[in-house]
Write a structure and sequence with these properties.
43% helix; alpha/beta; 8-stranded mixed β-sheet; 290 residues; Rossmann fold; disordered N terminus; 13 helices
């Protein structure tokens, strides 16, 4: 891991931030906010089974650049209320809309990794007037590969059912190009979230999107992509286990004004493994005139 961001704690603590529970409908939502309150809002969203610590190496760069950064745990995940029914894309999209309303954001930049990128695209297609720019980072929702879905379901549920060091480490290492970037602190952080009473059942509802039939009806459609009004950047990585970079390139080509960027020497979390490059890439994109 980059020596610039040696830990989750140091990544966050290098800038001022607040961490609180915000009520969004039925969901008590764990939200981290940094940067000037009057800055352009930038919402960061994690992937399936993830948590806001996914962006520990990114928040400072964007807060320092003047953005009002909002990072949160999805419904059913980590420090947000656990799920008691299956969560499909409409649930995540409507929760994001509610969160923006509750924290007083009219229009935001959206960046999401994996499931977060999927949510960002679906949200922007449905609510173009609430969206500034989109960065879909190794986004889900483009493919339905049985072997990948089974791997995600198996590793994730095993870690949720038994959040041992070995199972959580295996889940995290699957995400990375370099297993050494899975630090003991990251493992401990995820173990703490997965050990919360009730999380194992919540995980089953989160993982419904790995069911082929449920996934199929939630996939990003051509209509979703052509409906996008906001400038969009699709970020893929050289070693993404979810699928080839060609999938991201194809997505970008179908977006009006979409573009594509490849991050070398990274897996499914380029924002973690190549944080400095990722931050510079997004800062340049967000700063461009629309």
């Amino acid at each position: 891991m980059s020596a610039i961001y040696p830990s989750v704690w140091l990544g966050f603590s290098q800038t001022s931030f607040t961490l609180e529970q915000v009520q969004v409908g039925q969901w008590s939502t764990r939200v981290l906010t940094a940067g000037p309150p009057d800055g352009q809002p930038l919402v960061m969203m994690h992937g399936t089974g993830g948590h806001l610590e996914t962006y520990a190496h990114n928040v400072k760069a964007f807060a320092d650049a003047g953005y009002r950064v909002v990072v949160y745990d999805f419904p059913g995940h980590a420090g947000t209320t656990h799920a008691v029914a299956d969560l499909e894309l409409e649930h995540y999209v409507e929760h994001l809309l509610g969160l923006l309303d509750v924290v007083g954001i009219e229009k935001a930049h959206l960046t999401g990794e994996s499931l977060g990128g999927w949510v960002a695209i679906k949200f922007a297609a449905r609510y173009p007037d609430r969206t500034r720019k989109i960065v879909a980072n190794t986004p889900g929702g483009t493919m339905s590969r049985p072997e990948v879905m089974e791997k995600i379901r198996t590793l994730s549920q095993a870690a949720a059912d038994d959040p041992s060091h070995e199972r959580v480490k295996a889940r995290l290492e699957w995400l990375m190009a370099d297993p050494a970037t899975v630090t003991e602190e990251l493992i401990a952080t995820r173990r703490a979230h997965y050990s919360r009473p009730g999380y194992a059942d919540s995980a089953r509802h989160i993982l419904c999107l790995q069911d082929p039939d449920i996934r199929r009806r939630n996939l990003i459609s051509d209509e979703d992509l052509t409906a996008l009004k906001a400038p969009a950047l699709v970020v893929w990585s050289s070693d993404d286990p979810s699928g080839p970079a060609a999938a991201g390139m194809d997505m970008a080509e179908r977006m009006p004004g979409g573009r594509f960027a490849l991050v070398e020497n990274a897996g499914h979390w380029p924002q973690w493994e190549q944080a400095e490059f990722f931050n510079d890439l997004l800062l340049a994109f967000l700063a461009e005139e629309s």
